[in-house]
C-alpha cells in the first residue's frame, strides 16, 4: 500500500496522521511565535490535528485573528486557537501573551519560537539598525520567548522547538545578519537543553532547508529558478511546510523523549550538496 508520489516520494496523505494517533496531544497546549503564517502556521495546524489547543503570536493582529479562526476550523476536533498579538522584540508583549494563554487554557506544554525577520543585503549595505533589527527579532525574540515561558515549562515538563536554518553551517552571501542570529539561536537552544534538562524540559532546533510557500523561499529563490534549485537538492524537490510540521509533531511527542539539545535538519540532504559540480547520472 505504497501511497507515495513516484516523483517526490512524498506520502499523499499527511505523514504525521498516518504515523501518529490523532489524540497524542490531547490536553496539551502549544504557544507559538510567528504562528500567523508560513512554516509556523503549518506546524500549529498539524499539532492541533493531534489534539492540542494553541495560542499564536505575531505582529499583525488582523492576520493573526484570521489565522486563529482558520486553524480551529481546520482542526475540526474541538481544539481551540487564540490570537495573542505582539512583537517578540518587546518582553512585555511576550509576558502578556503567555499570561493570556495560561488564563485561557490553564497551561503551556509546548513552545515554538518561530518569529523571524530577514532581508537580502550585502553585509556592508546593512546599517547598524538593520543588523540590530534582525538580531532583535530572531535572537532576542527567542530569548524573550524562553524567559516568558520557562517557569510554566518547568512546571509542565514541556518542550521547546526553535526554528533555525542551515545558512550558517556554511555561509551564503547576503544573509549574514540572519545567519549569525540563527547560530545564536542554535546555541541558546542547546543551553536550555543542558540547564533545564534536569527539570524534565527538552529543547531542540529544527533547521529547515528551502521550503516552498514561505517568505524565506520567496526571498531566496530567484524567480523562475525553481527547477534549477530542485536539481541541486539530493531529494530532487523543494521542501513543503508539512515536512517541517511532521518533524514538529515527532519532537513534541513522547517518541522523542530522549531527543534534546539537538539540531534536526529537514532539507532533503541539501546542506551536504551545495554545488552542482557534476550532474546526477540519469536516474
Ligand atoms: C537593507 C534593510 C532592508 C533591506 C530593512 N532594512 N530592509 N536594510 N536591506 N532589504 C533596514 C532598514 O533600513 C532599517 O534600518 C532597519 O532594517 C529596520 O527596518 P524597518 O523596516 O524599520 O523594520 P521593521 O518594520 O521592524 O521590519 C523588520 C524587517 C522586515 C526584518 C526589516 O523585513 C520584516 O518585518 N520582516 C518580517 C518577516 C520576515 O522577514 N520573514 C522572513 C523570515 S525568513 P535604518 O538604518 O534604515 O533605520 C527567515 C528564513 C531565513 O528568517 C533562512 C532562509 C532559508
How many domain modules? 1
> Which stretches of 5+ consecutive residues score pLDDT under 50?
none
Number of helices: 9
- Specify the biggest β-sheet: 7 strands, parallel
CATH architecture: 3-Layer(aba) Sandwich
> Per CATH, what is the topology?
Rossmann fold
Mean pLDDT: 93
EC number: 1.3.1.124
Catalytic activity: a (2E,4E)-dienoyl-CoA + NADPH + H(+) = a 4,5-saturated-(3E)-enoyl-CoA + NADP(+); a (2E,4Z)-dienoyl-CoA + NADPH + H(+) = a 4,5-saturated-(3E)-enoyl-CoA + NADP(+)
GO molecular function, one term: 2,4-dienoyl-CoA reductase (NADPH) activity
Enzyme class: oxidoreductase
Describe the structure.
The chain has helices spanning 15-19, 38-49, 61-75, 91-105, 128-156, 176-196, 215-220, 226-231, 241-252, and strands at 29-33, 53-57, 81-83, 110-113, 159-163, 202-208, 263-266. The protein has a seven-stranded parallel β-sheet, sandwiched between helices. It is built from nine helices and seven strands. It starts with 14 loop residues before the first helix and ends in a 17-residue tail after the last strand. Strand 5, helix 6 and strand 6 form a beta-alpha-beta unit. It has one domain (21-265): 3-Layer(aba) Sandwich (Rossmann fold). Helices cover 43% and strands 12% of the residues. The chain is an alpha/beta fold. Hexanoyl-coenzyme A binds at residues 116-119, 121, 125-127, 129-130, 133-134, 137, 165, 167, 178, 215-216, 220. InterPro entries: DECR2-like, NAD(P)-bd_dom_sf, SDR_fam. One of its GO terms (cellular component) is peroxisome. This is 2,4-dienoyl-CoA reductase [(3E)-enoyl-CoA-producing]. It catalyses: a (2E,4E)-dienoyl-CoA + NADPH + H(+) = a 4,5-saturated-(3E)-enoyl-CoA + NADP(+); a (2E,4Z)-dienoyl-CoA + NADPH + H(+) = a 4,5-saturated-(3E)-enoyl-CoA + NADP(+).
Amino acid at each position: 500500500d505504497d501511497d507515495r508520489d513516484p516523483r517526490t516520494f512524498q506520502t499523499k496523505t499527511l505523514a504525521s496522521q498516518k504515523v501518529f494517533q490523532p489524540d497524542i496531544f490531547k490536553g496539551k497546549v502549544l504557544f507559538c511565535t510567528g504562528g500567523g503564517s508560513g512554516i509556523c502556521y503549518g506546524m500549529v495546524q498539524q499539532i492541533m490535528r493531534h489534539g492540542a489547543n494553541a495560542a499564536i503570536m505575531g505582529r499583525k493582529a488582523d492576520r493573526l485573528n484570521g489565522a486563529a479562526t482558520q486553524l480551529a476550523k481546520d482542526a475540526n476536533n474541538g481544539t481551540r486557537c487564540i490570537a495573542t498579538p505582539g512583537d517578540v522584540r518587546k518582553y512585555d508583549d511576550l509576558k502578556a501573551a503567555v499570561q493570556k494563554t495560561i488564563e485561557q487554557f490553564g497551561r503551556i506544554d509546548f513552545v515554538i519560537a518561530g518569529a523571524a525577520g530577514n532581508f537580502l543585503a550585502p553585509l556592508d549595505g546593512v546599517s547598524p539598525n538593520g543588523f540590530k533589527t534582525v538580531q532583535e527579532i530572531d535572537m532576542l525574540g527567542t530569548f524573550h520567548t524562553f524567559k516568558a515561558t520557562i517557569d510554566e515549562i518547568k512546571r509542565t515538563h514541556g518542550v521547546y522547538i526553535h526554528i533555525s536554518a542551515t545558512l550558517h553551517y556554511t555561509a551564503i552571501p547576503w544573509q549574514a545578519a540572519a545567519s549569525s542570529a540563527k547560530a545564536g539561536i542554535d546555541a541558546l537552544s542547546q543551553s536550555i537543553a543542558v540547564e533545564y534538562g534536569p527539570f524534565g524540559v527538552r529543547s531542540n532546533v529544527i533547521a529547515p532547508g528551502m521550503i516552498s510557500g514561505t517568505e524565506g523561499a520567496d526571498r531566496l529563490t530567484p524567480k523562475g529558478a525553481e527547477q534549477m534549485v530542485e536539481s541541486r537538492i539530493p531529494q530532487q524537490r523543494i521542501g513543503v511546510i508539512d515536512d517541517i510540521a511532521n518533524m514538529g509533531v515527532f519532537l513534541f511527542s513522547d517518541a522523542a523523549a530522549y531527543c534534546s539539545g539537538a539540531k534536526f535538519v529537514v532539507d532533503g540532504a541539501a546542506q551536504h550538496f551545495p554545488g552542482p559540480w557534476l550532474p546526477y547520472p540519469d536516474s
